[in-house]
Amino acid sequence: MTIDRRKFLAATGALSAGAAFGMPTGSARAQQMLTGVTYLPPSYEDLAFGSQGFVDYVNEKHGDTVKIDFYDSGRLLSADEQLPALRSGNIDFMFHTTSYITRSLPILGVIGLPGVVGPLYDNPDRLKRGSPLFELMNQELKKQGLTALSFGGGIMEPEIIWSTGNPGIRTLEDIDGKRVRVVSFEATKAIEDFGGAAVRIPSSELYLALQRGTVDAAVATISTINGRSIQEQVKQALRIPVTGFAIGIFVKTDRWEAMDDGVKSAMTEAAEWFDTHSAKAANEDYYTKQYWPKFKEPRHRGHRARSGDARSFRHGQRERA
């Protein structure tokens, strides 16, 4: 099934208006067909593993109860459009990186606090479904009418500082006076505290921003570097955990509570799978076993590591091209 993005937004906007005035909306069908989105493209194999796995789990194991119509790569909605569309009821659920929406949902910023991301990364159970932190975050999200079904069972490997030029950013003091790409509010404050100018740029525009000199560096994970081929532009990385994020599955609370029990059961079961496998697969199977070894090869055009493994963040290693 293919949906034209502009027609979708127009049609669903009319649908929401009709619902507000008590007009029939075909709710019986909505209980069986759900629309889900993510702005991330399949080139993010590490992140797509969890989101696509969730969708496949529902469609393959519970297809007689519910089907998911899934749109990745921002084909239906851009990163900034997803949350408003969820709130308006134009989509049924979304996968989103928490760092993109902390300005709208401040409680998610807990995940990305400097000084917290290292221990949270090393202890992923603290973010699993049913954990005290997970429940606290959902309590706050519900005040805004939203519910998180999962945060992937943990955060992704923390974001570090990747820079262009020579010498680039090799110490925290080098941040002073530099223009640094960020996404989250937490990263913005961290960079500004060291005298840098934080510039919010989505990952889809980061390659050109670095190439054109719009920014001198970027706060990003190895996932973004690999998924957007940023290693072609950066020369070194200061491997200090600036901030971090998780991939969340978000639904509108009243929509979730009104779903048929069979649909909720299928989604919950898939969320349990996502919680067990998403962050774990990304951090271990992709970053530790594939991405970092590839970037450390001398012939790679990206950067090459001097020493250490992917979990040595608190030591503030420097990686050079």
From TrEMBL:
Q: What InterPro entries does UniProt report for this protein, alphabetically?
A: DctP_fam, TAT_signal, TRAP_DctP_sf
Which controlled-vocabulary keywords does the entry list? Answer: Signal
Renumbered to this chain, the Basic and acidic residues biased-composition regions fall at: 306-321
Q: Where is this region: Disordered?
A: 297-321
Question: Which region is the signal sequence?
Answer: none
Give the protein name, as stated in the record: TRAP transporter substrate-binding protein DctP
Which source organism?
Jiella pelagia
